[in-house]
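Problem: given the chain below (340 residues), write out its structure.
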Amino acid sequence: MKTSRVWPLALLLLGALSPQAAQSCSRVLSNSNGQAVVVGRTMDLYLDDQAALVLRPRGLEAGGLVSASVANAKRWRVKHGSVGVMSVGTVLADGLNERGLNVNLLYLSGSDYGSPSSGKPVISNLRMAEFVLDQFATVEEAIAGLAQVQVVSDRILDRDWGLHLSLADRSGRSAVVEFIAGRMVVHQGNQTRVMTNEPPLAWQLNNLKRYRPFGGDLPLPGDVDPASRFVRASTFLSTLPKASSAAEAEGNLYGVMKNVAVPAGAEDYSGGQAEDSWVTLWTVIANLDEGSYAFQLARNPYPIWVELKRLNFGGGGAMRRLDVQSPELTGDVSERLNRS
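Solution.
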């Protein structure tokens, strides 16, 4: 096995026991471009997740678990309206709220949430993104809020999903929240601007030092596994020039995301133990300063987007969904999402 792919034994064993199908993704935060705080994210999955753009209005009732019912399941009402992407019909995988907080839910094989014995209210790991977007305005608030609940593993598509969470806000703050050996581990600062999948972030950051742009002697890797994507995303993020406009900052970051996207038919030749090297289904570019949220299906070359200042988050009521699967849907869809 290549030394760059020697992962912790516990992760290898967990991966061996899991079905060889998973949700892999890449997330990159650009907060030093001189124009705007911008986050890019790809969704890679082994099946079509039938993604939908959703609007969560203030006052919406939320919470509970996906596949079970427990007496102490956390429930809440939406405090901050948001827009995001609903995956496989019921999991909010990504989003941006009206206060400028961005959340990305990514796969992490081997996540260990511990036993729910703390006495805290319980939330599903599949509900982490909506809990944070609904309730909090900043990274600091979100971390404090997550510490007050017990996150538990939940089932969907006939399997448990190990998940970790990345956060960013308008100030440029960033954090990654992982669940390792039964406890919540929080990383903060600019070292959290890139996140992919397993192994956990601490391993990824240590591995990064072995490559030329970060003091090592290895050339840039080209594989589609999480470790290679982490190195490539970190490298190209570090070489992005200052932007002359917010649009240029978004475009520059989109170039990075295209470099870590997994094209249809791609195979993982790294020789590593990654569980999740799957085709990219969609990409999101979120501008946290301007409140714009752009979405592009991999099979559709034309993006759609919404401007949060044009969205109606008031009045409570049901979550609104917009089917984004049509190849004819392009451009600003803010009003269509308001009406859906």
